[in-house]
Write a structure and sequence with these properties.
Elements lengths: L1 E5 L5 E5 L11 E9 L2 H8 L15 E8 L11 E4 L9 H4 L25 E4 L2 H4 E3 L6 H4 L5 H11 L8 E5 L3 H11 L5 E6 L2 H9 L4 E4 L4 H8 L5 E6 L4 H10 E9 L11 H4 L5 E3 L8 H9 L9 E5 L4 H9 L1 H4 L3 E5 L10
Parallel strand pairs: 8-9, 8-11, 9-10, 11-12, 12-13, 14-15
Antiparallel strand pairs: 1-2, 3-4, 3-6, 3-15, 4-5, 5-7
Helix pairs in contact: 5-6
Length: about 350
C-alpha cells in the first residue's frame, strides 16, 4: 500500500510500505476513506517529537471501513464504516477505568502515528479496536466525520469542559486555528454571554465570526482592552489557550478574571512564564491536558443531529495520493488560508431519510 512515512526531521515520503496485518486479537485493520492533517503532525515532521521513530507512518485521525477484525473484537466487524479515534485506550488499566484514556498505561493512549504506524495511508492497523473505533451513521459524510477524531474532542474536553464554561460566561479563545475554532463552536453549546476570539490572522477571525464568535480581536492590538470593555473591567470567566506559545498563554492569564479558569489546549514546545507574583491572589485555576476522547459518542450524536458544524472548518480537499501536496498547503497556512485539510474519497453511499 501507499503511506506517508516519516524519515527524520524535515523528511517524509508518500511511498510503498507493507500492508498492515493483525498483530493482536484486539486489533482491526481499516481501509482509510478520509484522513486529515494535524498541527501535531507538523511538529513531528520538524523533529519536535523525538519519540516518533524514522520509518513510522504518520497520522492519527481517519474514517474508513473495517476489512479485518481480531478474534476478541466484539463492537465492529468487517464492512462496518467507522471513525478511527486519535486515542487508542486499552480499556483495562486504572486510567482507562476512570475514562482518562489519553493517560492509558496498558499500551494504548496516543499511539497511532506516534508509537505505531498511523492513518495517513491506504490501510491502518488499529489497536484496541473495540475502544478505538466508533461506528458511523449512514447519513454522516466521511470527510465531515473525520473532524470528530481529534479536534472536536480536544476543543470540547481540554478547552470547554476543563475550563468549566457555563451559561452567561464570557469566554476568550486565544488562537483561531482549527482547534480554537472548534472551541468557539463547542463553547457556544453552553450558552455563554459572549465568546471572544483572538488571533493575528484576519481570515481566521472572520472564520471565528462565522462559527459563532460574538467579538474578535487581533492579538497585536491589545485584546485585553476589548475584554475589559465587554466585561466592565471584570475579565473573562474562561480563557482557552489554543496556540501553544508563551505569549498566548500569558495573554490568557492577563484576560481571565479573579476566580476564573485558564484552559490550556495548545501544545507548547518552549517554557512559558507563570507569573505567580500576580496570579497567587487571583484564585485562578489553570488546567492542561491531552484529549481522552471520552466525549466522542456525545459529539457524534450532536454532529448527526446537525448541532456541530463540520464542513465549515474544511478549507482544502485532496485525493489521498496528494498527501505531499496537502502537507505543503497545510504547513503554509498563513499564505494558503488552510484550516482543516482533508484527503480521501468517500466510497460510502449515504442512505438519506425519505
Amino acid at each position: 500500500m501507499k503511506a506517508l512515512v516519516f524519515h527524520g526531521p524535515g523528511r517524509t515520503a508518500w511511498e510503498d510500505v507493507p500492508d498492515p496485518a493483525l498483530e493482536d486479537a484486539s486489533d482491526a485493520v481499516v481501509r482509510v476513506d478520509a484522513v486529515t492533517l494535524c498541527g501535531t503532525d507538523l511538529h513531528i515532521v520538524k523533529g519536535d517529537v523525538p519519540e516518533v521513530a524514522p520509518g513510522t507512518v504518520l497520522g492519527h485521525e481517519a474514517v474508513g471501513e473495517v476489512v479485518e477484525a481480531g478474534s476478541e473484537v466484539r463492537g465492529v466487524r468487517p464492512g462496518d464504516r467507522v471513525l478511527v479515534s486519535c486515542i487508542s485506550p486499552c480499556g483495562r488499566c486504572p486510567s482507562c477505568r476512570g475514562a482518562r484514556y489519553g493517560q492509558c498505561r496498558g499500551g494504548g493512549g496516543w499511539v497511532l502515528g506516534h508509537l505505531v504506524d498511523g492513518t495517513q495511508a491506504e490501510f491502518v492497523r488499529v489497536p484496541f479496536a473495540d475502544m478505538s473505533l466508533h461506528p458511523l451513521p449512514s447519513a454522516l459524510d466521511s470527510q465531515d466525520a473525520v473532524l470528530l477524531a481529534d479536534i472536536y474532542p480536544t476543543a470540547y474536553e481540554v478547552g470547554v469542559l476543563n475550563g468549566r464554561v457555563s451559561p452567561g460566561d464570557t469566554v476568550v479563545v486565544v488562537g483561531a486555528g482549527p482547534v480554537g475554532l472548534a472551541a468557539v463552536t463547542a463553547a457556544g453549546l453552553y450558552s455563554p454571554a459572549r465568546v471572544i476570539a483572538v488571533d493575528l490572522d484576519d481570515a481566521r477571525l472572520a472564520a471565528a465570526r462565522a462559527l459563532g464568535a460574538d467579538a474578535v480581536a487581533r492579538a497585536d492590538e491589545q485584546p485585553e482592552r476589548l475584554v475589559d470593555d465587554l466585561t466592565a473591567g471584570t475579565g473573562a470567566d474562561v480563557a482557552i489557550e489554543a496556540v501553544g506559545i508563551p505569549a498566548t498563554f500569558e495573554l490568557c492569564t492577563r484576560t481571565v478574571r479573579p476566580g476564573g479558569h485558564v484552559a490550556n489546549v495548545g501544545v507548547h514546545g518552549k517554557p512559558a512564564a507563570l507569573h505567580l507574583e500576580d496570579l497567587w491572589i487571583k484564585d485562578i485555576t489553570i488546567t492542561t491536558g491531552l484529549v481522552d476522547t471520552s466525549s466522542t459518542p456525545r459529539l457524534l450524536a450532536m454532529m448527526s443531529a446537525g448541532r456541530l458544524p463540520a464542513g465549515d472548518l474544511i478549507t482544502h480537499r485532496f485525493p489521498l495520493a496528494a498527501m505531499e501536496e496537502a502537507y505543503e498547503v497545510f504547513s503554509r497556512a498563513a499564505e494558503t488560508g488552510a484550516l482543516k485539510v482533508v484527503l480521501g474519497q468517500d466510497r460510502h453511499d449515504a442512505v438519506l431519510p425519505a
